[in-house]
Every structure is written in C-alpha cells, then in structure tokens.
Design brief:
This protein is 24% helix and 42% strand. By secondary structure, the chain is α+β, with helices and mostly antiparallel strands. Strands 1, 2, 3, 4, 5, 6, 7, 8, 9 and 10 form a ten-stranded antiparallel sheet that branches. 23% of the residues are buried.
Length: 159
C-alpha cells in the first residue's frame, strides 16, 4: 500500500514524472536542505513529489535497488517507494530505506547532519540506535572533484 494518497498528491507543491527530471529535482532538494546529493542514488524514478507546507517528499522507482556506498563499505536497500519529511539538515519519518548491518537489514528512520557541524551524517533506526559516517561518503564522486577544482581555480585567481 502506498503512503502517497491522492489527497497528498493534490496538496503537493511539486510533482514530476520521469527519471531525468526526478533525478535532478531530488538532488536539488537534498542540496537545498544541506544534505549530500548522493544520499539517494535511486534508479528509474517514475514519480517524485514535494509538499512544501509539511516538508513531505516521495520518490517512486520502477523496482527496489541495493546500492553500495564504496567509501564506507555499506549496502543500502531502497524500496520502490521512499518517503520522508525533510527540513534543514534533517530527513525524518523516512520509509523505504534499509542498511545491512552484519547479517540483518536495519530500517533507517532518520538522517541528520550533526549540529554543530562535524562533517558527519548520522543515521537513526526506529529503535533509537544510530551510527555516523563522514558526509564525503555520500557525495557524488564527479561533483566533488569539480567543486574542488573550481575552489582551487578561485584561490589561484585571488593570489
């Protein structure tokens, strides 16, 4: 059963269909709330939406996927429907995301950046257990290099 009802869709500020636009919009939203753009590496997104008043977000993909974040060696499973409520530096009431810990899949219910900033991203389970990882592990590799090159070019021009 879908958590995204017709009532929610009717109140949505933004709804998009198609993988290309949904990829772009989901990464843009992550960036706007201060999260790394590679946090939701979904594929074949069919629909995404955002209710600005409540911060409710949903992403629907054709099939569930498992992604390995190479820098930390973690497997994460994304269901066909991922929903959450977003605010600055925080994703809460998250559904559809699980992480593999030793032999079991653990549901992730909240993701937040530490305050004050430590450069770490914390993942919390519904049971209250949490684990933190470097933000850099969830950034898109090509974008990180581009950003570093631009920063270096700017520093050279200033000198």
């Amino acid at each position: 059963m879908s958590l995204v009802t017709e009532e929610i869709k009717a109140s949505a500020s933004e709804i998009y269909h198609g993988d290309e636009i949904c990829q772009e919009k989901s990464k843009l939203l992550l960036q706007e709330i201060g999260m790394p753009r590679g946090l939701l590496p979904l594929k074949d997104i069919e629909e995404c939406g955002y209710v600005k008043d409540t911060g409710f977000v949903w992403l629907k993909q054709k099939k569930s996927i498992t992604h390995k974040f190479e820098k930390i060696g973690k497997l994460v499973s994304y269901a066909t429907e991922v929903t959450a409520v977003v605010e600055q530096n925080k994703i809460k009431r998250l559904t559809g995301v699980k992480s593999k810990e030793i032999l079991i899949w653990v549901t992730i219910s909240e993701i937040y950046l530490d305050d004050p900033p430590t450069g770490r991203l914390t993942f919390k389970t519904p049971a209250g257990l949490s684990r933190s990882f470097p933000v850099s592990a969830f950034e898109i590799e090509g974008e990180v290099k581009d950003a570093q090159e631009k920063k270096e070019e700017k520093e050279v021009k200033e000198v």
